[in-house]
Amino acid sequence: MQSKSKKSVKVKYKPNSGPICVTEWSSNGVPDGESNIDLNIKTDENQLKCEIKDPLSEVLYSGSQFIPSHRRFMILEVEENKARLKPCVYFRMKPQINFPVRASSNLSSLSYKEQMDEYNEKFGSKRSLKRIEQRKKFAISFGEDDYQEMKDKTASIASKSSTPTDGVIKTKFDTTDIINDTFLMPPRNQNATSAKEVYNINDIVSESIVTNVESSYDLENFLQYINSPLVQHFAERVKNNLEKACCIFLDTLIKLKNLRSSELKKVESHGSLGLQSFELQQYILENYTVSLHASNKPVRTMTEKCKDKIIIHGLILSIYLNQFKPLLISEVSKVFLTSTIKMRKYGNIVGCHVDTNKTKTDRVFVFKLPLHSTDNKTYKRRRVN
């Protein structure tokens, strides 16, 4: 609807007269003549239609939910059964994608569901993105049966501590259960007289792995195998082959934690972890991932418990390679793509105290005796029937 100065526009809103198409609008108006966005208004079957091409994304947006008869347009906004007009200058809509006909010779390599997922990844809502993430995490193919079967099997592997019992749901994990979980935590020496004696680093990086790394890698120039900036910082001060093997091991754990589910499936066949040793790759996959079987085909995946184990072991290795000095929480959380709040919880589980650095500008982990004692409170709420 065209707007003119010194004139008011009254709109009679009839909610039962027909559906109102709401598009994604932002800013205040249509692009001016100096804009980089290509604007084209044409008549399509006696109906005005506007097409806009965004040169950055190279996607064509089209629509006819407005009356493009002037450089200034109005949009009808409905809130609480009241309608009002507001000027718009820039608009953005979902593109109308025409998928190829499956029966034609130009058969697309992607299924219809896969095409829709790609479409929703770019333009979908938060709920759609969450659904796609779950589908990619569990599904071998995009069939609903395989997806549901995979999801059920993954749930069966979950730890007993995370399963609600006796009608109680835990809204926060019980740190006592995690500390006593042998899958997540390496053995802790209760009689340690110094911080260095609390954990035996060979419980994470075994002696056989160290021997294998010595025979498979050029440890004189091992920095070429390290990608993480944090591990490169540790690697500059290593003194022996055990510490060098720990650097390679920690760098691999960081790569594994940040892999996408689709990339994780290709690790065994394509070696996407980039390791020189096949034995080291198999050791990491067997200890930090789970193998699920669906459609008679084993597939590697990571449950939340596997990710917890990677972060906990990675944090212990970081403390060891940092020579038990204060460790910046922000740097560790950055490489593991984890929030600092969640990383502080992992640090407390390992036994770290949280303190400020010398400049009082950032938080650090301090690993010292006596270790941080987590409160054994488990926050619970009753199940609502």
TrEMBL record:
The identity of this protein, by name, is Uncharacterized protein
BP terms from Gene Ontology? DNA-templated transcription
Q: Which compartment or compartments is the protein found in? A: Nucleus, Nucleolus
Q: Under the cellular component aspect of Gene Ontology, which terms does the record hold?
A: DNA-directed RNA polymerase complex; nucleolus
Under Gene Ontology molecular function, one entry of this record is: DNA binding
Report keywords, A-Z: DNA-directed RNA polymerase, Nucleus, Transcription
The record ties this protein, via InterPro entries, to:
RNA_pol-assoc_fac_A49-like (IPR009668)
Q: Name one Pfam family in it.
A: RNA_pol_I_A49
Which family would the database say this protein is a member of?
Answer: Belongs to the eukaryotic RPA49/POLR1E RNA polymerase subunit family.
Q: Does the keyword Cytoplasm apply?
A: no
Q: What organism is recorded for this protein? A: Tetranychus urticae
Query: What's the domain of life for this entry?
Result: Eukaryota
